[in-house]
Amino acid sequence: MKKYFQFEELGTNYRSEIIGGLTTFLAMAYILIVNPMILSLDGIEGLPDSMHMDKGAVFTATALAAGLGSILMGVLAKYPIALAPGMGLNAFFAFTVVLDFGISWQIALTGVFVAGVIFILLSLTGIRETIINAIPTELKYAVGAGIGLFITFVGLQNSKIIVSDPSVIVGLGDLADPNILLTIFGLVITVIMMVKGVKGGIFYGMLITAIVGMIFSLVPLPSGIVSSIPDVSPTFGAALDPIFNDPTSLLTTQFLVVVLTFLFVNFFDTAGTLISVANQAGLMKGNKLPRAGKALLADAIATTAGAVAGTSTTTSYVESTAGVAAGARSGFAAVVTGVLMLLALFFYPILSVVTSYVTAPALIIVGVLMVSALGNIEWKKFEVAVPTFFVIIAMPLTYSIATGIAIGFLFYPITMIVAGRIKEIHPIMYGLWVIFLCYFIFL
């Protein structure tokens, strides 16, 4: 096992990998609760029952997709990167495709399935890997730093330290709120342990925060320990029904837009996450991502299988950086996370203690670690500074990793050509420029 996951080469051990995998699980466990709420359009009244997906079935599908995807990533690609249905993509699925477009959730799942199959083909041909390796070093650093700012913003928002403000868009929340104080407490504890060099400090920070939260009744005590697995049959296989029973329902412009959007966002969300986590873990070699093809294949298979089970697009999770910060370096950590996702099917009540106020300190600290990539960017060269800056700043401001990548990549060929560095531009970057331009114009 140690030899397969290259423990000696990576300077890791079982303890570090288990703690790293557990930390990643705790940092992303919220998806098991949030995803069913979003996909079922929970809380939106006046809709016919047919528009609401079964929450129990979506919970089971979410855990199965996350478990399968994370284990595949760990075993095939040997990266400490966990997968699960992606935030943002699930919101697009529920609120745009189903609620706005009026497309049934069954056909929406078909869109995810078709996108997944296309991803599998692209991964097997090596096209996705070629594109990722063609991205310039500076932009790869920018993607990592941008995701760092993005994930910190998510942590600040989830804990309500930063809130919406109609006057200035965002502002400081009510720091007298006991829940916010719990997050600040967890942040201080985590910072102290990180400064002291405590291995797994992020995980221990979340654990202490959860315990303190329960003591002060800010975190709900679990109603139980073990529960039965919710029935997945209401959603299982629904993605395949339109293909075999009503294929003409898929021959619409809206369905094409749905598939293209899932393709675009998942491709570059995954690419950005792979690059940023690999950079943080020190796994990049010569500006290339080893075994990128296998990582992308794991992601594609998980998306396809997740759609069949009954959930939106499965993608690599930026919360994996929390596990890396806690010591994870190999795919064994991803396997640990995947196994925990599957075990969560039986221990749903316990997940109630993993609130956004508990996980927020971890996300904030991970952002601190990831922006260190800024030091590797040649800021004095304006042709490099402009596109990298736009990648970094656009991610948190647009709340989208893919959009941040798109904006920066649109500027890169322009600034490099004007600076007389046209020979340094990989031909693929021109193709991406056209794709990103079309994305903004048509999608």
Automatic annotation (TrEMBL):
CC annotations in GO: plasma membrane
The keyword Transmembrane is annotated on this UniProt entry: yes
InterPro entries: Azg-like (IPR045018), Azg-like_bact_archaea (IPR026033), NCS2 (IPR006043)
Subcellular location(s) per record: Cell membrane
GO molecular function terms attached to this record: purine nucleobase transmembrane transporter activity
PANTHER family: GUANINE_HYPOXANTHINE PERMEASE PBUG, XANTHINE/URACIL PERMEASE C887.17-RELATED
Family membership: Belongs to the nucleobase:cation symporter-2 (NCS2) (TC 2.A.40) family. Azg-like subfamily.
Official protein name in the record: Putative MFS transporter, AGZA family, xanthine/uracil permease
Source species of the chain: Psychrobacillus psychrotolerans
